[in-house]
Amino acid sequence: MISSFTDLALIEPIRRALSLENYRQPTPIQAQAIPPLLAGRDLLGIAQTGTGKTAAFALPILQRLAASTTPRGSVRALVLAPTRELAIQIGESFRIYGRFLPLRHAVILGGVGQRPQVAALAAGVDIVVATPGRLLDLLEQGHLRLDGISVVVLDEADRMLDIGFIQPIKRIIRALPRTRQSLCFSATMPPAVAKLCDDILRDPVRVEVTPNAATAERIDQRVFSVDAPNKRRLLSTLLRDRAIARALVFTRTKNGANRIAEQLLRTGIRAGAIHGNKSQSARQRAITDFRDGKLRVLVATDIAARGIDIDGITHVINYDLPNVPETYVHRIGRTARAGAAGAAISFCDPAERASLRDIERLTRRSLTIIDAKGLLAAEVVKDPRPPRSTGNQHHRREAQRESAQRVKPSRAWPRGAAVAAG
Ligand code: AMP
Which CATH fold would you assign to the domain 219-407? Predict the structure, then answer.
């Protein structure tokens, strides 16, 4: 059993950086992946964000580059990430873990000016963290060479394929030397991902942590059956429960994300939205505000939320159910980090029943379905005065409608359906 970073034979400058970060012992993926990676093996890592996978690949890369005799300042390590947010986070990890080593890194991503990135490359870097599109642009313009790469990492391979990065990835891989160390990480392993990894890796060590079912087990999952038009009201109702302290809400569409965030803001709930149509800086700001607790709710599309690493998410709310069941597992894995409790709430309208069945099949778990009608009706306060019995149908209906719109300001979560506070 490996229980300390010393057992992992990490060099002193790296151990010093880790102790500054208060990392006391390696996570399971680090304990399993670091020794073979230090020995130069290829690796297939099945792990989600939150397992410590970034350090699992970053530490051996730093250590091997620090020990290599190749001159510093030529690009020797390449990490490919599907989203800008993830690339930024990985770059930050290299900065932190490598702070006592004389190695430099650059983050190459789209959506921002390319000039600073070109300047960084020209000044000489050892490690490049990149999203595939911009990397190819710079490669084609001759701003960097990949023929000195000794190690490549494909992170979140399943997301890469979802986003449609298969061709850019293949082109990048073809530009790399054949003799190299290769690593693929993915939360899920559908056949297309397995095939891609198989093409890239040579005799890899396979490391798998927190299998889907295990992750899902710690998470309190519940499903509300609700008609699509009532989803908005259900969300506001649920959010009256202060136990939902930090919620990540997933929607299928960018417009949906905006609309929901705006509606929540109107009802006085601090909410923000992130999706592909927002500028990089607006997205980053929303993520930072959410992380700092300035926003209680972050509404996101799957693509925008990829790779975001935020601790302390008490609830993941699936406003729309994903069509791809793996996405569900990926989404709910954002809560219940590092052994903490967490809850996932899903809204399922009649058209989404098939998606729900696919999810149950994948997670091998049957989910309890709560009819939202009860919750939506329970919070309606009856007008203390009996409705005037005018005998006038129209007036009676008016009065009923009015009272149905008034909602109880207190706890909205029904007893017996309490959500783990996380
Ligand atoms: P990752 O899965 O790489 O996104 O890492 C998830 C979070 O765990 C990050 O906030 C890391 O800083 C943190 N982390 C990674 N390794 C360790 C460790 N050995 N001890 C404590 N925290 C860690």
Answer: Rossmann fold (3.40.50)
